[in-house]
Amino acid sequence: MLNGLNAIVTGSTSGIGLGIAKMLAAKGANLVLNGFGDAEAIEQERAGLEADYGIKAVYSSADMTKPDEIAAMVDLCVSSFGTVDILVNNAGIQHTAPVEDFPAEKWHAILAINLSSAFFSIQAALPHMRQKGFGRIINIGSAHGLVASAHKVAYVAAKHGVVGISKVVALETAGTGITCNTICPGWVHTPLVQKQIEAMASEQGISIEEASDKLLCAKQPSGQFVTPEQIGELAAFLCSPAAAQITGIALPIDGGWTAQ
Ligand code: NAD
How far does residue 222's CA lie from ligand 1's centre (Å)? Predict the structure, then answer.
């Protein structure tokens, strides 16, 4: 279904990004992988995707806090595959603290990785998409792009910002064959969330299982985690011809979180 298309997925060495990368590869897209982690494990993942799905995959170590490295990641996609058709801005981090105690360096890091990196990668990728008259930009927002939670000031600000970026890019590209949307997941059981579960368990003196249930049920009426595979399928749908007129939206996949 995505045969011959070339995709960049930022933060694809773990969690949701890896789930999206696998799904796009399974549907035939070539990939630029990106994110931090053990070099050997990343190489295994890259080679595994090529072997399992018969696609080409390359790895960019670009740090999403650095606009020049982001531009180099887009250049790598173009030099490896000829163009960039799909851009998934997924890399993200979290830090929780009340507003008064929120460390300035965490504020800057979250805004840079979760928000500004999407702007810089879109800026670098758009000329290639315009030239081809085709593009699919998918920003991974969050339920926190639509509603707030206490102690997540930088994350909520960044994710609301991502929803805004998508709307502006959708307007500027309308009718060109390019779409830009935000996927807004609820809780997904990834390393990013595992850290929050562990913090809750130690703060409240409860087990990891109890903390996991408590965290999930406080926000997500389904009481079930969203999976990276489900988000991958949604991303693949947004890349399909059926989604050509879907642009500028913020699409929740959140077990009912934002219906409340
Ligand atoms: P994760 O920690 O499993 O993965 C994060 C990825 O981002 C990793 O590959 C990591 O190496 C990469 N990354 C971090 N800093 C980077 C940097 N400076 N440069 C390049 N790569 C960097 O987290 P996840 O839960 O899979 O989160 C992925 C995205 O989904 C994030 O944007 C997050 O905000 C969003 N999200 C997650 C959830 C959830 O419940 N897990 C819910 C909604 C939205």
Answer: 23
Yes or no: say if 4 and 84 are a contact pair by the CB < 8 Å rule.
no
Q: How far away, in angstroms, is 101 Cα from ligand 1 center?
A: 23
Structurally, the chain folds into a number of domains equal to 2
Nearest atom of ligand 1 to the alpha carbon of 188: 40
For residue 36 and ligand 1, the question of a CB distance below 6 A is answered with yes
| Spatial CA neighbour of 193 closest among 226, 157, 154 | 226
Band of residue 137 on the pLDDT scale cut at 50, 70, 90: very high
- In the reported structure, the alpha carbon of residue 131 is separated from the centroid of ligand 1 by a whole-number distance in angstroms of 30
Per-residue pLDDT of 222-258, as tens digits, reads 999 999 999 999 999 999 999 999 999 999 999 999 9
Q: Are residues 134 and 203 in the same domain?
A: no
In a shared domain, residues 220 and 236: no
The residue to mutate among 68, 106, 190, having the most atoms of ligand 1 within 8 angstroms of its beta carbon, is 190
Does ligand 1 lie within 6 Å of residue 125's CB atom?
A: no
CB 125 within 8 Å of CB 103: no
Domain co-membership, 43 together with 16: yes
Q: In what order do the strands lie in the sheet with 86-89?
A: 57-60, 30-34, 6-9, 86-89, 135-140, 178-185, 250-253
Residues with a known catalytic role? 155
Confirm whether pTM is higher than 0.85. Answer: yes
Give the span between the Cα atoms of 213 and 22, in whole angstroms: 28
Are 76 and 94 part of one and the same domain? yes
CA 91 – CA 96 distance, rounded (Å): 17
95: helix, coil or strand? coil
